[in-house]
Amino acid sequence: MDRSSHARSRRFAPAVALAAAVALTLAGCSSGSGGKKSDEEGSGASAGKAATPRMTVALVTHQAPGDTFWDIVRKGAEAAAAKDNVKLVYSADPNAGNQANLVQNAIDQKVDGIAVTLAKPDALKSVVSKAREAGIPVVGLNSGLSDWKQMGLLEFFGQDESVAGEAFGKKLNEVGAKRAVCVVHEQGNVGLTQRCDGVKKTFEGSVENLYVNGTDMPSVKSTVTAKLKQDTAIDHVVTLGAPFAMTAVQSVDETGSKAEVATFDLNEQLTGAIQKGDIEFAVDQQPYLQGYLAVDGLWLYKSNGNYSGGGEQPVLTGPAFVDKSNVETVAGFAAKGTR
User: Fold this and answer.
1) Torsion from C-alpha of 266, 119, 295, 154, nearest 10 degrees
2) 65: Cβ–Cβ under 8 A, 6 or more apart, which residues?
3) For residue range 217-227, what is the model confidence (pLDDT) as tens digits?
4) In terms of CB atoms within 10 Å, which of 12, 94, 107, 293 comes out highest?
5) 282: which residues sit within 8 A by CB, 6+ positions away?
6) Are strands 282-284 and 320-322 parallel, antiparallel or unpaired?
7) Helix intervals (H) in 85-155
C-alpha cells in the first residue's frame, strides 16, 4: 500500500504502534445495522473478554441515514466493546444541534465514557464541556483533529484531512489530471472542507467545489450529471465518500464523459469498482480502526489510566491509497466489513 503521504504522520508512530498492539487482541463481532439510536453489547466474543467491571460507552456520530461508511466505524466499536466487557450505546444525527442533544442524553444516562465525532465542532463545544464537568472522559474520532485538544478531549483517532487532501492532489498530478471537481456532500463539515482545500493546495491543475445534498442520492446524481454536461473539460470527479463515488460513476456513464472518478474512503462495493476500473483510486482512513480504538481507548483509560498520544498527539489511522496495484489485498478485508 502506498504510504508516501505519511511523512508528516511519522511523528505519531509510537502512539500508532501502541494502538496497533492493543488492536491485535480484538475478538470478532457482528456488524450493527446502523439506526437512529440503539444499544449494542457485541456478540461472539466471550473468549478472551476482559475481566474488568462492566462499563457503558456512548458512541455519538454525525452519520446521515444510509451512509454505510459508519457501519464500518460501528463494527470496529462493537468488536472493542465485546472484548472489553463494554455496553456500547450508539446514536447518530447529521444535524449538529441534534448530535449535541444525543451527547447530552449520554451525560444524563451517566455513561462511563463518550466517543464523539466533531464534524461541526462549534455546535458541540458546550455539551462536551458539560461531559467533562460531569467527570465523563471524552475521546474524538474521525472528524475534529483541529479542535479536539482545545475542546479538552482525552484522545483523537482519525486521519489529518488536510494531509489526506494534499496527498490526493499529488496523486492527481501523478495520473495526469488537469481539471477536477470536488463533490462536497455536506456543507459546514470541516473535515470535508479540509479535504478539498488540501487537494487545491497541491494539485497543479484546476479544481472547483461542487456542493450536493448528500442525504438525497438522486439529487447528487443529477447535480454531478449536470456539471459534467456543462463542463466537458472535467477529467476527474473527486468524491469525499464511497457511496458518492459510485453515484458519480453513474453520472459519468450517463453523460458519456471521459472523466475518471477517484474518492476518499472505501467499502466493499468500491473495492470491486477499483478492480473493474470504474474507480481510479481511493484514500482509506480505516474507519474500523477509528471505532475500535475509540472504545478501546476509553476502556484503557478507565481500567489502567492509559491514554495514547500523551494527550497531545492524535493517533493517525490514514491516509493510505488503494488502487489496482494493491486492491486485491484490501478486497478480502473489505468483504468482511473491516476496511
Assistant:
1) 130
2) 94, 215
3) 999 999 999 99
4) 293
5) 242, 245, 262, 263, 264, 265, 266, 270, 274, 321, 322, 323
6) antiparallel
7) 96-108, 125-133
List alpha helices for 120-187, DSSP H: 125-133, 161-174
- What pLDDT shows up at residue 131? 98
Q: How far apart are CA 242 and CA 284, in angstroms?
A: 10
- As a whole number of angstroms, the distance between CA 66 and CA 137 comes to 29
Its domain, for residue 246, covers 161-284
My answer on whether 134 and 80 are in the same domain is: yes
Query: Coil, strand, or helix at residue 322?
Result: strand
Distance of CA 11 to the CA centre of its chain: 21
- Give dist(CA 174, CA 54) in Å, integer: 51
Q: Do 13 and 133 fall within a single domain? A: yes
Q: Which residues pair with 91 in a beta bridge?
A: 37, 60
Q: Where are the alpha helices (DSSP H) in the chain?
A: 13-23, 69-84, 96-108, 125-133, 161-174, 190-202, 217-230, 242-255, 268-276, 287-304, 327-335
Give domain status of residue 240, yes or no. Answer: yes
Q: Tell me how far apart the alpha carbons of residues 296 and 292 are, in angstroms, rounded to a whole number.
A: 6
- pTM to 2 decimals? 0.82
Cβ atoms 175, 321 nearer than 8 A: no
pLDDT level of residue 122 (50, 70, 90 thresholds):
very high
Mean pLDDT of all residues in 98-113:
98
Q: Who wins on pLDDT, 309 or 16? A: 309
User: Residue 333: inside a domain, yes or no?
Assistant: no
Question: Are 235 and 144 part of one and the same domain?
Answer: no
Burial of 305 (0-12, 13-18, 19+ CB in 10 A): exposed
| pLDDT over 60 at 32, yes or no | no
Domain-embedded: residue 329: no
- What total number of domains does the chain contain? 2
The percent of residues in the chain predicted with pLDDT above 90, rounded, is 83
Dihedral pair phi/psi, residue 55, rounded to 5° = -135, 160
Chain centroid, CA 146 distance in Å: 15
Instruction: Look at residue 332 and tell me if it is in a domain.
Output: no
Exposure string (b/e) for 184-208, b if CB count within 10 Å is 16 or more? Answer: bbbeebbbbbbbbbbbbeebeeebe
Contact present, 41 and 88 (Cβ < 8 Å)? yes
